[in-house]
């Protein structure tokens, strides 16, 4: 394609600017009649054959003459990037394509770099979010996050397996939401009342702690904020077996129990349960040795173990005992075994022989029973004194 061939399009129309479209049909720019004249007037410039119209010579601003052109005619010729005529556009179609072109030109080139950075950040955020979800799902303690109204946003597997299955919640997330929402209010109210505070700058309610004997766990209520605005709450459940107290002791923290206003019976039961559990662990689950160590009878210790329900309370720490079945004695095995029929005998013959042997055994037992009273009489006579024998003889003579 030669550059001179572009001028022929202006000979067929009165328009001073002709739209140029790309391969996909989108508007690339406007070819101006003045710019073609200027390029052709430069006689010293060598012109080579072109594959397409140079984008540098295309304009992106709409002239007034082109607007006036649509008052005289309804269609305008459209040429492709290869310099050939492609179509005729009416005014609405031309203006729609021009607005798209204008919006692309107005866009700041820095936006592309900013968008690429944002995309990279999104990718990083997605990877971080995935890793955070993995950590929370494998967290050993129970976690549940709710919004301000008490609706569940997130809970991990530990909460679903260990906490939600307790009788207090009965495997129902709705009952758990109601209970925790009311618990949050009660704990906040008791904290403010004990410290003579009101909700404001003085009260630090970001983390509140309480104990739940029904769940045998400690609960930390963490307030979630975004730009000083409360968004939700995170409930962190710690098992009583893993340790309430400070240091190495597994006993409940007495200060925490006091602030939670727990009854004295529950605190004493918790301490007693931990103390007995430790003693049983030290004595390899031997109740007799643990009872002697604790200074109480064995039956008392058994009753306390049942009353405190240690098997369920410390079920994660309970070791499974191997039960070895007892072997049966040889005598029982011989009695239960039935004699097999000999060669040449039928089952009926063997059965009749067995009946005969049973009858002989019964007769022998009867003869033994009958002989026992005579033997007793003989024994009694031997034991009689000589004076008693004389008295017996006189009694016989009188008869």
What does this structure look like?
The chain has helices spanning 8-11, 33-41, 64-72, 91-106, 110-137, 157-163, 173-194, 254-259, 264-282, 287-294, 298-308, 310-313, 330-336, 347-383, 386-398; strands spanning 17-21, 27-32, 75-80, 85-90, 142-147, 152-155, 207-212, 217-226, 229-239. With 399 residues, the protein is of the alpha+beta class. Strand 3 (75-80) and strand 4 (85-90) form a beta hairpin. The chain is elongated and about 180 Å long. The chain has 15 helices and nine strands. Helices cover 50% and strands 15% of the residues. The strands form two sheets. The chain has a five-stranded antiparallel beta sheet with strand order 6-5-9-8-7. Strands 2-1-3-4 form a four-stranded mixed beta sheet. Helix 9 packs across helix 10 (287-294) and helix 10 packs across helix 11 (298-308). The chain has four domains: 3-107, no CATH class; 108-138; 140-259, PAS domain (Beta-Lactamase); 264-317, Arc Repressor Mutant, subunit A (Orthogonal Bundle). The model is unreliable at 241-250, 319-338 and 374-382 (pLDDT under 50).
Provide a compact summary of the structure.
Residues 319-399 are annotated as: Disordered. By secondary structure, the chain is α+β, with helices and mostly antiparallel strands.
For the structure shown, list the relevant keywords.
15 helices; five-stranded antiparallel β-sheet; 9 strands; 399 residues; four-stranded mixed β-sheet; 4 domains; alpha+beta; Beta-Lactamase
């Amino acid at each position: 394609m030669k550059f001179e061939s572009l001028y022929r399009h202006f000979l067929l129309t009165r328009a001073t600017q002709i739209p140029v479209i790309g391969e996909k049909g989108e508007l690339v720019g406007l070819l101006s009649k003045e710019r073609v004249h200027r390029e052709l007037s430069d006689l010293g410039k060598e012109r080579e054959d072109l594959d397409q119209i140079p984008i540098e010579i295309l304009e992106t601003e709409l002239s007034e003459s082109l607007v006036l052109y649509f008052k005289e005619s309804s269609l305008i010729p459209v040429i492709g990037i290869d310099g050939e005529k492609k179509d005729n556009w009416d005014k609405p179609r031309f203006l729609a394509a021009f607005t798209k072109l204008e919006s692309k030109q107005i866009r700041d080139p820095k936006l592309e770099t900013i968008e690429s950075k944002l995309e990279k950040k999104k990718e990083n955020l997605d990877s971080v979010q995935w890793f955070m979800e993995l950590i929370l799902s494998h967290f050993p303690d129970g976690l549940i996050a709710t919004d301000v109204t008490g609706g569940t946003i997130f809970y991990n597997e530990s909460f679903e397996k260990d906490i939600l299955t307790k009788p207090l919640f009965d495997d129902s997330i709705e009952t758990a939401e109601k209970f925790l929402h009311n618990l949050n209010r009660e704990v906040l109210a008791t904290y403010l009342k004990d410290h003579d505070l009101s909700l404001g700058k003085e009260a630090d309610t970001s983390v509140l702690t309480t104990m739940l004997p029904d769940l045998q766990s400690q609960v930390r209520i963490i307030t979630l904020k975004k730009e000083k605005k409360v968004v939700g709450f995170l409930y962190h459940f710690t098992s009583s077996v893993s340790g309430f107290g400070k240091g190495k002791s597994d006993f409940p923290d007495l200060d925490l129990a006091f602030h939670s206003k727990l009854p004295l019976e529950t605190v004493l039961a918790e301490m007693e349960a931990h103390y007995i559990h430790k003693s049983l662990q030290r004595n390899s689950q031997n109740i007799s040795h643990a009872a002697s160590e604790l200074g109480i009878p064995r039956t008392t210790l058994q009753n306390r173990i049942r009353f405190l329900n240690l098997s369920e309370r410390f079920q994660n720490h309970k070791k499974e005992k191997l039960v070895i079945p007892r072997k049966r004695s040889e005598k029982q095995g011989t009695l239960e075994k039935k004699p097999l029929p000999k060669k040449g005998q039928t089952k009926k013959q063997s059965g009749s022989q067995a009946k005969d042997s049973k009858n002989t055994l019964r007769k022998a037992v009867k003869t033994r029973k009958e002989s026992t009273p005579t033997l007793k009489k003989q024994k009694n006579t031997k034991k009689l004194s000589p004076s008693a024998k004389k008295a017996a003889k006189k009694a016989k003579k009188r008869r």
